[in-house]
Amino acid sequence: MSKQDHGTKRSFVIQKHDASQLHYDFRLEMSGVLKSWAVPKGPSTDPSEKRLAVEVDDHQLSYADFEGVIPEGEYGAGTVMVWDNGSYQNMREDDMASCHRDGLIEVWLEGEKLRGGYALKRIRGGKKPQWLLIKMNDDAADARRNPVSTEPDSVKTGRNLKTIRQEEGE
Ligand code: MN
To answer: Which of 15, 47, 49, 134 is 20 to 30 A from 143 in CA distance terms?
Structure first.
């Protein structure tokens, strides 16, 4: 068991992705890549809300900054917004790779919109493992907040999806 990455700050990003179906890509820097989960309803600040998070392909670290339009015919075609970003710390004793392998991740987020502990729990394996993204009980937990609807715009540029599409689309 390695405690090497305990306390180390790494980056996280949540990209709002208006593809065939709108979803939120939750990405954690881990082992030199962005481990990624597609969350159809987006993250919640309410600990009683369990949000389905489908693990999807790793992305390069440089993708964390991407906001723009993926052309028709390409993987993930649609509009991408940097909805939230910041740093995270591993809250567990095991290193992140072990937590990921074992299907229980707990991270402390310091973002613009999301803060505090979030757990990812794997509920089904297979080609597209299914996890649940759950807000942990702490000072940042708030059942009345709903940042997905009340804070819909980019933390990077302040733009909404429509403006990104107009300015970055072909
Ligand atoms: Mn996506």
So the answer is: 15
CA 29 to centroid of ligand 1, rounded, Å: 16
Task: Check residue 2 and give its pLDDT.
Answer: 40
Q: Each residue of 130-144: pLDDT tens digit?
A: 999 999 999 999 999
* CA 19–ligand 1 middle distance (angstroms): 7
State which residues form the domain around 67: 9-168
Residue 25 lies in a domain: yes
Residue 4 CA, ligand 1 centroid: distance in Å:
30
Residue 2 lies in a domain: no
* Ion ligand 1: residues, CB < 5 A: 17, 25
pLDDT tens track for 63-90: 999 999 999 999 889 999 999 999 999 9
Quote the number of domains for the chain.
1
DSSP 8-state symbol, 6: B
